[in-house]
Amino acid sequence: MPGTVLLLAAAPLGRGRLVDAAGVLPVLAAVAPAVLSGTDTANVVELADPLEPQAVLTRLRAAAAAPGPLTVYLTGQLHLDRRQRQPHLALARTTPATVRYTALPWAWIREELRLRSPADTALVVDLHADAETWRQLAERPLDSGRATAVYGRVAPPARGRGPAEPAYMKAVATLLRSGHRPPLAELHEHALARATEPGAGRDLVLAGPGGFAHRPTPVPVVPRPYTPDAPVTTPSGRGDPHTAISDAVRAGRHAEADALAAGQEEAAVRAFGPASGEALHWAEVRADLAMFAGDAARSCRAWLAVAGVRLAAGQAPDTPVVEAAVDRAHHQWGIIEDPARARELGPALAELRLRVPGRRRGALENVQRQLRQLQAPLAPLGEGTGSTR
Fold this sequence. Notes:
Largest sheet: 9 strands, mixed
CATH architecture of the largest domain: 3-Layer(aba) Sandwich
Order of helices and strands: EHHEHEEHEHEHEHHEEHHHHHHH
Helix content: 40-55%
Distance between the termini: 65 Å
CATH topology of the largest domain: Rossmann fold
CATH class of the largest domain: Alpha Beta
Structural class: alpha/beta
Low-confidence stretches: 212-216, 218-237, 379-389
Mean pLDDT: 82
Shape: globular
């Protein structure tokens, strides 16, 4: 089965650029696709200094949905948004004041990869952080989800003038140009040894599931702390259920996949409560499973429920996970083919959009306009049209 490779290099244009991210792409692009992927054949998608977060999300979502192994090579810089102080990957138009609207939330990357099997999903990253983000990462390691192997580093702000070099990713590319891709853990260690620019000894090194972070000294690995939104496995008496669910989806056994996830959700609700991070994770998994099964209405309903639980639990409307739930509900609602089911779910979505407008302008107006179109055929002749008949 062919693999998929996403090469993403992003950094702001102008003085806000901390790293020459796109400079590494020619070196990576010179590596054979099969070597980049570690498979016999591979499809490669390249994004250089993209402008729009939604465009990046679309490419990432397509790559995550592709069958076979996925490797994402990501070079760029991290900033915090001013409201939620969540890490974002800066894009070409990003400035400190516009992070929330012009950068890609790191949570989106985690969310898009969370349903994939840990055995065939990997992030290789060379990231640079501004001073504010660097201080936060020292206390709260970057969370990439439990299902993704992450290798790379996060570098502190450069002390010299001008953008820093993505030395780690260039070392990875140089090693791969030999035509051989060793196991990622081995490739990672060799790349670290070659990335010897000034200040490299201060880097946060990412190696392992979820991007567990540590400094390259004798200090032991520090696992990321539990957060309410981190996907975790509930007590089930068997192995990692994500792998079994992914296998069932790939084989087209959608009912089986949903039944497995439903069992996990029920166990999480009994053990931790319906608003717990564990229960919400499995509710989100089931929403995605409905999407994979082609049941847009069921997926929309599930995402609406997730957003409602999160808001009722006190999470702010502009929290990335709340916004993501409403955005996904909105997307699924827009592709429901049965007008009656769309009319049924539309008012609930419109009500949520009042509270959670999201980052795309006009989202509420879009729901209201489509809902009017759906309801128009049901109105009596002449009603609301100004007719005198």
